[in-house]
Amino acid sequence: MAARGDNHITYTYRGGERHDIPHDATHIIIAKSVLVILAETFRRRPKIKEVEFHDKIEKVEEGAFAFCPSLIRVIMPGVKIVEGCAFYECDALTDVECGKLEIIKEQAFFRCRSLRSINLPSARIVEENAFTYCQALTDVKFGSKLDRIEWAAFTVCTALERITIPLKDGIIAAADIFIGCYNLKQVDLVEGPIHETIASCHHTSLNWRTWKRREKVMMAMTGAGEMSQFGVDVSFVLRISS
Hints:
Number of helices: 1
Number of strands: 18
Order of helices and strands: EEEEEEEEEEEEEEEEEHE
CATH class of the domain at 1-115: Alpha Beta
Distance between the termini: 56 Å
Shape: globular
Strand content: 25-35%
Strand order of the largest sheet: 1-2-3-5-7-9
Helix content: under 10%
CATH superfamily of the domain at 1-115: Ribonuclease Inhibitor
């Protein structure tokens, strides 16, 4: 059922086939009866601007919103998995609310060129090319649950300036995650309530395990990795337990 106003057509999606969705719908509300957004359900819907999920939806399947050029805002409070190419080339997407999102699969937000920042407090795995060519993205925040960022996840995010990740072994799963991130200047390594710039830290101020973890992250991101060949000068900030 669609409610129509001045250039505003709200459609409540209750499941069913793609052809049931009005091509001129601008705002989508997902009904409580829908628990999964199936693959390619809203693919190539040129007028959709906003999608509002309820908190029982846990998965957005492959290509569900791919090539929706007008999509600006997605509210998905319960989603835990976003599958491959789910928001592929959503050029206008600027606002993603996804506090419970755990797994971001390959190319999930590929070429979302208007996305400026994203907060992923529950994310555990970010797969390859998940945010590639998000060229307006400046700030990415991960929480303590993050386990792994895979190959090329943030390549050619040319505006990216700052990323927050936990201080854990194995987080950086490849050396070329940040190729083309020419403006990346600060990496916050989160471990506790206190922070200080790593350049000013001495071995005596950190326990041995914390220091070795810090070294591994720095080596992965600026040592043998590709960032060094672009002359990127990254400042690391470490948040440590007192």
